[in-house]
Amino acid sequence: MEVTDVNIRLACDRICLPAVSENEVQKLFTPGEDIPTCAGFMRGHGTYTEGEDLKASVAGVKEQVNKLISIKPLKSRYNGEIGDVVVGRVVEVQQKRWKIDTNARLESVLLLSSVNLPGGELRRRSSEDEKMMRKYLQEGDLISAEVMNVYQDGALSLHTRSLKYGKLSQGVLVKVFPSLIMRRKNHFHSLPNGAAVILGNNGFVWICPASGLEHQEDSGSAGGFIQDLEKEVPKADREVIARLKNCILALANSKMMLYDTSIIYAFEESMKFTITELLLPDVMVDVANLTQHRLHLDIAD
Amino acid sequence: MAGLQLLSEYGLRVDGRRPNELRQIRCKMGVFSQPDGSAYLEQGNTKVLAAVYGPHEVRLNRSKTHHDRAYINCQFSMAVFSTSERKRRPRGDRKSQEMDMNLNQIFESAIRTELYPRSRIDIYLEVLQADGSNFSACVNAATLALIDAGIPLKDYVCSCTSTLAPSQGGAPPTPMVDVNHVEETLGGPGLNMSTLPRLDSVVHLELSGTRLHLSHIDPVAEKASTGAADIMAVLDKAVRGHVAQCLHARELSGQGADA
């Protein structure tokens, strides 16, 4: 039996991010601090008023859009906005809807009327459909969806009314902080190395073999709810997916933003290490630094 | 212990500090990756870990939600190896339950709960080494963990314990700030005060140990209040350093996105 090396490290040898002098960041506010304002300001997220003054309630950077002043914290739970692409897990099947966990402060809701029926029919949902709900999505299933509406208490209402959304079958889920995902036009990426990635705005990243996403689009007649669990994923694809997962975790560890270019560069920079070496913290910092360097060169050109 | 005085004739305490000196505070935010927010705080030899989960949906017990604000749940636990004799019950005994209740009340008044209706925020505290002022260190660590999780607070919640050294040789009794284990157990009152320093308001005041005469309350409370304000300065510096570091890394990586 082959014994692999066990890696044990001392906590005092842990690598921390390099120290940065505070003078470089000017607009930093901490809870309870007064924010200097002009007349007629409007207060946004992360602030509260105490009498006449505007005070910060989180630790973060001040963002000002004309008269709207808000403080954006470093990390927080996902705050949904209409049009965001999210990846979520079904936690409950209720009467006419499913409850989805999307790393937000309240569970999101997927109404029965917001999913495509199999066969692509357009009709009113009957009580027969309610009974068949469990056949479509059960507790524990992963789906990709888009935010349709935000309720008053902050809960999100999702829909999967397009062919690219639906149940996700074989792949790997990576959870990062929502603030690390950059808002882009397209969140479904097919990478040149044979894997496809869905960057959910809520911080859930789904990595699957590229054939998985294509198959979903082909099965348009089924409304995106067929899960192909019998198809075997070849070993080369699995290695690519494992390497991608470790690269994403390395970037997230160094608090770098995640988008298609940074993931592709990190993947290329990580080729000099083996997949298991990418789990070591100093290698993670290395990969992140090399990716940063390459992104710098990109803008320098 | 014969001849052990809380305050020697040179004005030094048992560990060599002056009456108005705090112990050295070291802290680190974001020590865990799984909880939403986490912090590690050392106040002298007292070491505390704090983890915050939330705000998230209440799954099991639907009755414990408020329709207009968040429900806060704190759990105080001491590791079995934290005291000089192995602790039998790390949590769930009377004293811990009372501390849980106190922590709940403190953070309900400091967190802006009206922003999170029907949600729940869990705060877990673990004392790894208990060397006096355990409750105060827990409150300070929980504040850092809440800031790390991005939960809006009205202000920092800073807590400090102060005591009164008995009068020696005709001098009036001296209040001392930030007690350690020896000073706690030698007898004498322990006034535990938690404040919102910038808003200048007290959220929690607790007296343990022996009784305190009414005329002595003001100087002791005053000492605790200044101690809390000093602690806030230390915590504020740590928070600014942590946020600046993370922003720096993010700026360097985000620059490539616009290309």
Compressed to H and E, one letter per element, the order of chain A equals EEEEEEEEEHHEEEEEEEHHHH
Strand content of chain A: 15-25%
Major sheet strand order of chain B: 1-2-3-5-4
> Could you tell me the mean pLDDT of chain B?
87
Q: What is the SS-derived class of chain A?
A: alpha+beta
Named CATH topology of the domain at 11-73 in chain A: OB fold (Dihydrolipoamide Acetyltransferase, E2P)
Strand-residue proportion of chain B = 25-35%
| Name given to the CATH homologous superfamily of the domain at 11-73 in chain A | RNA polymerase II/Efflux pump adaptor protein, barrel-sandwich hybrid domain
User: Can you summarize the main beta sheet of chain B?
Assistant: 5 strands, mixed
Subcellular location (chain A): Nucleus
Protein name (chain A): S1 motif domain-containing protein
Domain S1 motif (chain A): 83-161
GO molecular function (chain A): RNA binding
Summarize the structure.
Chain A is an alpha+beta fold and 301 residues long. In chain A, 22% of the residues lie in helices and 25% in strands.
Q: How would you describe this protein?
A:
The complex is a heterodimer of chains A (301) and B (259). Chain A has helices spanning 127-131, 133-136, 210-218, 235-253, 260-269, 281-300; strands at 28-29, 42-43, 47-50, 53-56, 60-65, 68-73, 85-93, 97-101, 108-111, 142-150, 156-159, 166-167, 172-175, 188-190, 195-199, 204-209. By secondary structure, chain A is of the alpha+beta class. Chain A has a domain at 11-73: RNA polymerase II/Efflux pump adaptor protein, barrel-sandwich hybrid domain (OB fold (Dihydrolipoamide Acetyltransferase, E2P), Beta Barrel). Residues 218-223 of chain A have low confidence and may be disordered. A 5-stranded mixed sheet of chain B has the order 1-2-3-5-4. The termini of chain B are far apart. At the A-B interface, helix 6 of A face strand 3, helix 2 and helix 4 of B. Chain A: InterPro entries: Exosome_cplx_N_dom, Exosome_RNA_bind1/RRP40/RRP4, KH_dom_type_1, KH_dom_type_1_sf, NA-bd_OB-fold, S1_domain, S1_RRP4.
